[in-house]
Amino acid sequence: MKPAQRIAELRKLISHYNEAYFTKDAPLVPDADYDALVRELKELESHHPELAVSDSPSQLVGAPVSTVFSPVTHAEVMLSLDNVFDAAELVAWADRASKGLGVDSTTLTFAVEPKIDGLALSIRYEEGVLVRAATRGDGRVGEDVTDNVRTIANVPQQLPKNAPALVEVRGEVFLAKADFEALNGHQRERGQKEFANPRNAAAGSLRQKDSTVTAERPLSFLSYQLVDLANALNQDSYLGQIDLLGSWGFLTAPEKSGEVGVSAMVERSTWFEVHRHDLPYDIDGVVVKIDSLTQREALGSTSRAPRWAIARKLPPEERTTTLLAIEVSIGRTGRATPYAVLEPVLVAGSTVSMATLHNQDQVALKDVRVGDRVIVRKAGDVIPEVVGAVEVPGQKRGPAWKFPTQCPECSGPLERIGEESDTYCVNPGCPAQQMQKIIHFASRGAMDIEGLGDQRVAQLLNEGLITDVADLFFLTSDAVAALEGMGELSANSLVANIQGAKDRPLSKVLVGLGIRHVGPVAAREIARAFGDYQSLAEAPLEVLESLPGVGPVIAESIFEYTRDPEARVRMTKMLEAGVSLIEPNATAGVEQTLAGKAVVVTGAVQGYSRDEAEAAIVMRGGTSPGSVSKKTFCVVVGEAPGASKVTKAEELGIPLLPAVEFDGLLLRGTLSPNL
Description:
Elements: H1 3-23, H2 31-47, E1 71-73, E2 83-84, H3 87-101, E3 109-116, E4 119-126, E5 129-135, E6 141-143, H4 146-149, E7 166-174, H5 177-189, H6 198-206, H7 211-216, E8 220-228, H8 238-247, E9 257-260, H9 262-275, E10 283-290, H10 293-299, E11 309-313, E12 318-330, E13 335-347, E14 350-356, H11 360-366, E15 373-379, E16 383-390, E17 414-416, E18 423-425, H12 431-442, H13 454-462, H14 477-481, H15 488-500, H16 506-513, H17 520-530, H18 533-537, H19 541-545, H20 551-563, H21 565-577, E19 598-602, H22 610-619, E20 632-637, H23 643-652, E21 656-658, H24 662-668
Parallel strand pairs: 2-11, 19-20, 20-21
Antiparallel strand pairs: 1-6, 3-9, 3-10, 4-5, 4-7, 7-8, 10-11, 12-13, 12-15, 13-14, 13-18, 15-16, 17-18
Helix pairs in contact: 1-2, 3-9, 12-13, 12-16, 16-17
């Protein structure tokens, strides 16, 4: 076959796989097979540059991001935002903030700004020069997209000479409405598929393998945060920082404003709801922040979001369509979730053909029936849901829907447990549960096993090669290669990926096991506390309940799981297979010299990064909050410390510990007599 013919064939095939994977979420081939096709196409294009084109599918990211972009650990965690959905909830948040600060809410200054619907980004500058750009990722680790970000026209490559030596500028990569329309017009002219919405187009453009393709896309960057890593700025106003970013050449939201008092703040946030379609870019909400950085430090943050900021989500778009059927799906815990099969309808930029009905009670409450015209919306702009039926004059409605009594997958009984509103398939051998458990175990948030998607898991189960997650680690390349659609190369790749997951930390294993009520935060705390699974499995219930952030519900769930006979067999098999079940940097075996003590670190501590210093404190039983309070044991003062933290400590009489004595504090847990 001639090179031109093979290139055309590969482009057509890869484009087909791209549509199935990225658009329909229904991959047709394993990732390894897909990557092999892309590599072949790139090699042919490199040998025949006259046949290369900028929109070739070889320039698109076709595999999980972790295999394409280098990981970048953020200097400071990129937190998310908690949400409110109306003015009353917004007022309640402001009241909590004012009480936490001990001030009258009418005296607070709020920054109000649009919540851009784009892709979060952090750009690092050293000595004024752009050195790295990374996506948010999981908040701690993002993707290195530096080369692509350098092509964004409104991102300064260099800061003014008066800028601090080390800063990160955070914001949102987006496509303005006009630029999005122009991009889709260009796609139409070339006979190519149009993008569904600006956010997806921006995200896809930023994640191109070839930065020259990104350069062709009219991306913009809007900055909304300045992280002064060198603590060189004497600035206590967030709006002042944003003005500074504007003076450095960054785009900032022209609609932002400072509002004194809750009433003015709520009124301004409502303005965005009224004028959302008048703005030059898509927004999915309004962000409200406390302006004073000192007050922010006093309020602090939870594990996922700051207490000094909130996002008021705007009402999602709603559409009407016909309810064609009501079906039930079975999840990994056995929960039976009813969902609506809909006549496809475009909602918030994407086509919706299915929507959740949550549970049996919600179906009865909404009284939606097959054949009804129903209102569909995207809850939180993510998960489509059926709001309720639309009355149609003269239309005869069908019978009320009844929740089935048997599992649609295994015919086992469906039961409601206790006072819960959810219904469960109580057959532990239900194939749907087993499949979802294994899919969850292999997912990116858990064991992150590349190539082990829905179709592959179903195939392994159907062929009897696995019945449980532990069986994955005993798979052989020969057995996998015998599966339909698998070759030797693909089988070797999949088995290698599974074997590579043996070294995942215990916290990831706990997430992957899907233990009820145990999410990523709780899993990390539990894994750090015990260090290995055996120690966890032997822990008394009262010890589990005493762990920070765990509590009786999670503790009981862990306690019951570790003593369940089936779980014991599973974990024994995983140990036999060589799965480590160990948490690196756990607290087990480390003397708890700082137990119950809050140690704040400000400035650079020699020999430690910011995260390493915090981890060293936590490993020894202490906490390392981001702000100083009356409960603070001491403040470790390093090079270029934050003036506000030092001042606050002095006001409260909190001891200031020079960074050179940090190691001694970790060792002894006590302060020098002269402090």
